[in-house]
Amino acid sequence: MGFRLIVGLGNPGAAYEKTRHNIGFRVVEQFAQAKGAEEWQKNRKLKGEAAQLEQKGSEKLYLVKPMTFMNESGVCLQKVSSYYKIPPEEVIVVYDEINLDVGEVKISVRGGPGGHNGLSDIIDRMKPNFTRVRIGIGQKTPKEIDLADYVLGKFSEEDETVIGASMERYIDCLDRLLKEGSEKAMNFVNRKPKPKQREDGQL
């Protein structure tokens, strides 16, 4: 069983472009461009924008950006999954994660929403056994700032540089999931590099 649907989470409209909450959109857009997917098409019936990508020796891969706004991401995902008959086990959801530093990426399967409203809505409407690709946006700073204001704010120039340098890694993460499956991809992407030893044997 392989993956047939990749969903990037975000908010529609120019006002939300390049905000932290829209990193899911950006990663899926970059992946589509890198892989030569068909042009994005608006689908009002499915409440989203979709692109298709041919997979060697398997069914088509659908790339989707919900146009329902973040808090109702599950509406689009439910419609797309139902229309194309794609079970949750064949779905990858890409979204922003405040508990990871900018530039980090982690894969997880199942689990709770972790305070993410888009993920919460998806879990409410579907079974939670889909694969998550969590893209780090860093902890909110200053700590006093409202969480909504933070995730709807734009990355600093420094963070944008890190995001740009990390985009190839994000795309590779999705590639590995498609080619190797969740377990192998997770073991590779989530592993922490071992500290280097000095010649005298000390860390």
Description of the molecule:
- It is globular and about 50 Å long.
- α2 crosses α3 (117-125) and α5 packs antiparallel against α6.
- The protein has a 7-stranded mixed sheet with strand order 2-3-4-1-5-7-6, sandwiched between helices.
- β3 (48-53) and β4 form a beta hairpin.
- The chain has one domain (5-189): Peptidyl-tRNA hydrolase (Rossmann fold, 3-Layer(aba) Sandwich), CATH 3.40.50.1470.
- It contains 6 helices and 7 strands.
- It is of the alpha/beta class.
- It has helices at 23-35, 73-84, 117-125, 147-151, 157-180, 182-189, and strands at residues 5-8, 41-43, 48-53, 61-66, 91-97, 105-109, 131-136.
Describe the structure using short key phrases.
single chain, 203 residues, alpha/beta, Rossmann fold, 6 helices, 7 strands, globular
Derived from helix and strand composition plus strand pairing, the structural class reads alpha/beta
- Label the CATH architecture: 3-Layer(aba) Sandwich
* Domains (count): 1
Tally of individual helices:
6
Largest sheet report: 7 strands, mixed
Number of strands: 7
Q: State which percent range the strand residues make up.
A: 15-25%
Strand order of the largest sheet: 2-3-4-1-5-7-6
Unreliable runs: 194-198
Give the CA-CA distance, first to last residue: 42 Å
Could you tell me the CATH topology label.
Answer: Rossmann fold
Percent helix, as a range, is 25-40%
Q: What is the averaged pLDDT score?
A: 91
CATH class: Alpha Beta
The CATH superfamily appears as Peptidyl-tRNA hydrolase
Q: Helix and strand succession? A: EHEEEHEEHEHHH
